[in-house]
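Form 12-C: Joint structure prediction
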Amino acid sequence: MKVIHVQEVIDTVARLCQEANYYLGEDVQHAFENALQTEISLTGKDILKQLLENARIARENDVPMCQDTGFAVVFLELGQEVNITGGFLYDAVNEGVRKGYTEGYLRKSIVNHPLQRINTGDNTPAVIHTTVVPGDKLTITVAPKGGGSENMSAIRMLKPAEGREGVKKFILETVKNAGPNPCPPIIVGVGMGGTFEKAALLAKQALLRPLGEPHPEPDIADLESELLEEINKTGIGPQGLGGKTTALAVHILTYPCHIASLPVAVNINCHAARHKKAVL
Amino acid sequence: MPHISLSTPLSDEIVENLRIGQRVLLNGVLYTGRDAAHKKLMELLDRGLDLPFPIKGQVIYYVGPSPAKPGQIIGSAGPTTSGRMDAYAPRLIALGLKGMIGKGKRSPEVVKAIKQYKSVYFAAVGGAGALIARCIKSCRVIAYPELGPEAIHELVVENFPLIVVNDSLGGDLYEEGVKIYGTR
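Section 2 - Result
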């Protein structure tokens, strides 16, 4: 049994909130550089250059890449041989978010209630997803999610007969409908299968996979590359101002589903694809 | 493609000469405003009161900046999604608002008002908040401090890089861009 004190969780979450907002992932950086080579729109190229410059300024000065420093979505993979001491794990995660957003000069964007809408002042509560896993480690991933791209996400319960083509059609429709709003070039997270809520969670988890890493199953990997190609033919382009680089990647996760169901969720991420991980 | 250098306030003549796709470097005073601030501005107008800043010829930047670190003027300050302000924008345009800066599509009503009253909608690069912050030379809250990042700020900017998306002739770069580069 491994003992982890909540203070360690607080400090780790606080650090990850800041790192995720300040430092663009190397995978995304490479994807921008590759896109610069293939983009034909001059405005599109100019935008990609601005995004690379923006990432450099943020990284060198420890400032957020984007003013929308997001809803703190926190994924916990809790080893069943871990004993958390000193308090409740979820309180520690929220305390870490409070500390990270306040000390890191990150924008507090969370309101207390969907209709009352009073800012909670510390970016809490976090949205926490926990999985219990074998072993004696606690893996924490912080994925701040901005409102602009989250708002363009969608879920649909397809009929099983609609199959692969129906799935493709819905994903393309969602990306086209999103247009410039989610800050393209986007990363498209897709959850397919499971139930209504499982599909949505899978779509978000799919965004955590490093760019350029295809799905391990060849048929799903094919679907990902087909979709990426189709999306980049829409002409939406960087910031929606026209071009070839509408998406940097499509990531799909699947789960078994009911004989009657084919849920598909599309969680759209902006170009920054922020997430940072630590293992305790 | 060269940049056009502009200073606020914007005149009818300047706005009428802007065309979609043009790249602009904007200088001068801007006012920030998001959903909650716009709602409050509408309430003032409904009650027949003055707005907290003169609207004629001015430019509103849809932004909710992150907090400034010690020694900084402002935190990250990229554009937010403009569509959320569509319900309020036509009324401000009719009162003389000459420019809006944000990201994402505008409603047909806003596009119509831009054409009718000779205004312009610029896109700034979404997510480039650290880069844009470097163009901001001063920042002060002039209304609704209780709204935090959503308060109305007066900004002075230098060479703020923008792209004309909706012009006074009814042009829409989001639609034209897709037509030019789309192949399906």
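Section 3 - Comments
The CA atoms of residues 120 and 251 of chain A lie 33 Å apart. The two ends of chain A are 13 Å apart (CA to CA).
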